[in-house]
């Protein structure tokens, strides 16, 4: 009795469906999807970039050209006198310094308090840690406007009005919920074996935080700082409520200096001032955008 041997060609096909060449119709569908995705991406890029390009182009137009011509047209004459007038009209340098102090001070509080709170809630843990974390997250939906009057009354009673602290404290407080969420999401995926090994070696919670958790959190720190810096740098409501003197005005308040008599606005100088004030944020974002993206991804995926 002889055995019959089937050749590979005569047997049923074992080639996976995913490795087969795509049919013409499927390739056509994929090409259409890629084209549509490319069109959507380019539309988003244009929508995001065009205001910045228009802002810079307008900042180098003459006043007469902007007032008499089409505000969206290209400049007929290029001038940089608007930037000189921007510094002469208002205290732009002092406003930038004040915004820098408020932004750095707020971010320092946000990072320190956010990291320590997330470390206590996610790594150390305690009986009601999930409940406390939920309470922090509720703060994300609380509008800042409800705190203005109580804070103004409290600041008046403790002589904190018209100080840097009057802006730094509420800005840091309202940014903490999201920061705690980002840090907690990242700490959740740090292997527990790492902390157990450090504990076996005799490391306490403070040493573990300083030598393990903090170094691993660099990208998340960059993400938290960049996300909050945009909100803090452009803050108007707290500065407008608690700042009373010109010496402490931040950039959003300082832009009011370009409004003259009868509500007349020096638009070209205002656009030049805005260009100067957004440049630091753009440069920092361009330099650290990869770390920011990695920090967001590390809190969303395990690995």
Automatic annotation (TrEMBL):
Record-level GO BP terms:
transmembrane transport
Supply the PROSITE patterns for this chain: ABC_TM1 (PS50928)
Residue ranges annotated as transmembrane are 35-57, 96-119, 131-153, 165-187, 208-233, 267-288
InterPro entries in UniProt: BP-dep_ABC_trans_perm, MetI-like, MetI-like_sf
- Annotated region (Disordered) at 1-27
Q: Tell me which GO cellular component terms the UniProt record holds.
A: plasma membrane
A matching Pfam family: BPD_transp_1
- What membrane topology was assigned to this protein in its record? Multi-pass membrane protein
Reading the lineage from the top rank, the first entry is Bacteria
List UniProt keywords, sorted A-Z.
Cell membrane, Membrane, Transmembrane, Transmembrane helix, Transport
**Main subcellular localisation:** membrane
Does the record's keyword annotation contain Methyltransferase?
Answer: no
**What subcellular locations does the record give?**
Cell membrane
- Compositional bias (Polar residues): 1-11
**Residue span(s) of domain ABC transmembrane type-1:** 96-288
The record's family statement is: Belongs to the binding-protein-dependent transport system permease family.
Q: What is this protein identified as?
A: Carbohydrate ABC transporter permease
Source organism (scientific name): Agromyces binzhouensis
């Amino acid at each position: 009795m002889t055995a019959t041997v089937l050749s590979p060609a005569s047997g049923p096909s074992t080639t996976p469906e995913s490795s087969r060449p795509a049919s013409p119709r499927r390739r056509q569908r994929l090409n259409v999807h890629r084209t549509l995705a490319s069109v959507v991406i380019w539309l988003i890029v244009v929508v995001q970039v065009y205001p910045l390009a228009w802002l810079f182009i307008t900042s180098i137009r003459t006043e007469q050209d902007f007032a008499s011509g089409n505000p969206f047209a290209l400049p007929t004459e290029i001038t940089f006198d608007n930037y000189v007038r921007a510094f002469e009209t208002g205290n732009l340098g002092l406003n930038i310094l004040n915004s820098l102090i408020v932004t750095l001070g707020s971010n320092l509080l946000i990072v320190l308090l956010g990291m320590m709170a997330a470390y206590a809630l996610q790594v150390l843990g305690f009986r009601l840690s999930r409940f406390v974390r939920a309470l922090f997250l509720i703060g994300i939906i609380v509008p800042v406007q409800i705190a203005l009057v109580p804070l103004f009354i409290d600041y008046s009673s403790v002589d904190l009005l018209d100080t840097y602290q009057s802006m730094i404290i509420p800005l840091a407080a309202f940014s903490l919920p999201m920061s705690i969420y980002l840090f907690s999401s990242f700490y959740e995926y740090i292997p527990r074996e790492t902390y157990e090994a450090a504990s076996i070696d005799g490391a306490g919670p403070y040493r573990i935080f300083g030598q393990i958790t903090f170094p691993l959190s660099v990208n998340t720190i960059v993400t938290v700082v960049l996300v909050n810096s945009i909100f803090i740098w452009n803050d108007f409501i707290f500065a407008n409520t608690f700042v009373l003197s010109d010496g402490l005005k931040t950039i959003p308040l300082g832009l009011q200096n370009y409004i003259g008599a009868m509500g007349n606005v020096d638009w070209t100088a205002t656009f030049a001032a805005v260009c100067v004030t957004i440049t630091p944020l753009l440069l920092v974002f361009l330099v650290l955008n990869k770390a920011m993206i990695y920090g967001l991804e590390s809190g969303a995926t395990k690995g």
